[in-house]
């Protein structure tokens, strides 16, 4: 394959391409298992130099000292240049991540919407005046006042996973940059090129040196970033298990942490829901072959319609076309690697052992000698306390659990270590809203509200419990990359 970028065996440090010290590693297409390119592997020297470059750019460079409006000018240039590379970036998400065409709006268009929104919001950042008043004291009353000032945190370590690589790189970079921080980004070793193309564009634009740094590599590179005292904040998207390790690594230097983690989100379908709409929503758990943290993989269905729902879901599963995402008619692509397929198989075994009913799937599809494909799999008669209902699979497995009352559905939705997403379908909006208010999760959409890419109702994103710390997107996402300073003064 000819990669749609000019990358050699180099990482991006201080505005320059620097030869990586590790042996290049092959990056494979998960649908074909063909090698699409050799990725640079950074080492201790490159990580240290990248952090030093970011530290210098923050401590002594112009970037954090620019006004938000001045930073916005540079970021709009970067945004426009990335938009011009849309075809190349989409191609990379198909080749690297195995993303099907129907997911392209989420892989590219939605992060560009969010990053553009971050630029515009961030460009309007202003200091907030405190109410003025008089302060009695010796010599008479004095006028006092103050300002609340938001300042950048400093050097940000951004660590992203493989499932939505370009998306997550972008939605971490732009909010951090518009608020005046500098960044060292480490993408997944499975999907490095979706990050390196950003570096290529930044270098072509002459973006300020040291503001953006990208170092590829594996676990060792990440640990160098999470333990280095020169890093001020870590933003990480991935599993709760890895986040726990990062928190321990960051603890000695008391770094700020921003985590967007896993989920086992509940889709609640009340007895009055439109069955066709509910099934369409239910099929959403198969987005990107189930490799999404916020996907609603637990389907809590009112027992009055559960049998009909399961039958309709089975029909919808059988209508899916499995194959190479390079074919735009394909609706279900591969898992990222063999290890993830083996993990999926493990959970199928757990489901069968628990006594759940296998409705569809549960095996590798016939006719595929290459690629990490797995059939869309649905279980019915699932116990909410079973392994397949409680643990995040990150594969194409959905579970159906019956309920009789709204209170029972809410209790089951909350009976989880996670709290990232959720959804409710019902003809009774008031009842659904009351249920949404009672669910302990970071976001709930009712009848699909706010779930479309680019929705004006797209608000802060993040989770409760083991689903994360902090929020991304919108004003809350910008504030995550700032420190608050209170400056007060009085008349002498």
Descriptive notes:
A seven-stranded mixed β-sheet has the order 14-15-16-13-12-18-19, sandwiched between helices. Strands 9-8-7-10-11-21 form a six-stranded mixed β-sheet, sandwiched between helices. The chain has a three-stranded antiparallel β-sheet with strand order 5-6-22, with no helix packed on it. The chain is globular. The chain contains 15 helices and 22 strands. It has helices at 44-59, 68-84, 86-97, 104-123, 165-178, 193-205, 219-227, 240-250, 275-282, 306-318, 338-353, 387-390, 406-414, 429-438, 474-479, and strands spanning 10-13, 16-19, 25-28, 35-39, 128-135, 142-152, 155-159, 182-186, 212-214, 233-237, 256-260, 266-269, 298-302, 357-360, 377-380, 397-403, 418-419, 422-425, 445-446, 464-465, 468-469, 482-490. The longest helix is centred in the first third of the chain and has 20 residues, at 104-123. The chain has 492 residues and is an alpha/beta fold. It has two domains: 10-261 and 471-490, Aldehyde Dehydrogenase, Chain A, domain 1; 266-459, Aldehyde Dehydrogenase, Chain A, domain 2, CATH 3.40.309. Strand 5 (128-135) and strand 6 form a beta hairpin.
């Amino acid at each position: 394959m000819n990669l749609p970028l000019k990358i050699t065996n180099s990482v991006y440090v201080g505005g320059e391409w620097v030869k990586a010290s590790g042996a290049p590693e092959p990056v494979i297409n998960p649908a074909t298992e063909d090698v699409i390119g050799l990725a640079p592997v950074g080492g201790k020297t490159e990580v240290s130099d990248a952090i030093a470059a970011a530290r210098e750019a923050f401590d002594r460079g112009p970037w954090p000292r620019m006004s938000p409006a001045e930073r916005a000018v540079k970021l709009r240039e970067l945004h426009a240049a990335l938009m011009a590379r849309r075809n190349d970036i989409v191609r990379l998400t198909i080749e690297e991540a195995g993303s099907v065409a129907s997911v392209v709006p989420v892989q590219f268009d939605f992060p560009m919407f969010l990053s553009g929104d971050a630029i515009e919001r961030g460009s309007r950042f202003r200091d907030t005046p405190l109410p003025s008043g008089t302060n009695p004291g010796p010599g008479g009353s004095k006028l006092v006042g103050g300002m609340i000032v938001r300042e950048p945190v400093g050097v940000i370590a951004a660590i992203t996973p493989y499932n939505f690589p370009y998306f997550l790189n972008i939605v971490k970079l732009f909010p951090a940059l518009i608020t005046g921080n500098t960044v060292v980004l480490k993408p997944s070793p499975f999907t490095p090129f979706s990050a390196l193309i950003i570096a290529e564009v930044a270098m072509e634009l002459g973006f300020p040196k040291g503001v953006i740094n990208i170092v590829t590599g594996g676990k060792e590179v990440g640990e160098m970033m999470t333990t280095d005292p020169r890093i001020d904040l870590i933003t990480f998207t991935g599993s709760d298990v890895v986040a726990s390790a990062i928190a321990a690594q960051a603890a000695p230097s008391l770094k700020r942490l921003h985590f967007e983690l896993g989920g086992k989100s509940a889709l609640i379908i009340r007895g009055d829901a439109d069955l066709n709409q509910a099934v369409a929503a239910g099929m959403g758990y198969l987005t990107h072959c189930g490799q999404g943290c916020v996907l609603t993989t637990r389907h809590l269905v009112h027992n009055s319609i559960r049998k009909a729902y399961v039958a309709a879901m089975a029909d919808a599963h059988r209508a899916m076309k499995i194959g190479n995402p390079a074919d735009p008619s394909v609706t279900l692509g591969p898992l990222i690697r063999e290890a993830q397929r083996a993990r999926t198989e493990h959970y199928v075994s757990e489901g069968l052992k628990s006594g759940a009913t296998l409705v569809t799937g549960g095996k590798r599809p016939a006719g595929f000698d290459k690629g990490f494909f797995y059939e869309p799999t649905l279980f019915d008669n699932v116990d909410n306390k079973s392994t397949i209902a409680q643990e995040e699979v990150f594969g194409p497995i959905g579970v159906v659990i019956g309920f009789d009352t709204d209170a029972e559905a809410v209790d089951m939705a909350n009976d989880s270590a996670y709290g990232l997403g959720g959804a409710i379908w019902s003809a009774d909006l008031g009842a659904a809203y009351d249920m949404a208010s009672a669910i302990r999760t970071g976001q709930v959409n009712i009848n699909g509200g706010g779930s479309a890419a680019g929705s004006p109702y797209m608000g802060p994103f993040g989770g409760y419990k083991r689903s994360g710390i902090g929020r991304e997107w919108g004003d809350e996402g910008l504030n995550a990359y700032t420190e608050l300073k209170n400056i007060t003064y009085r008349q002498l």
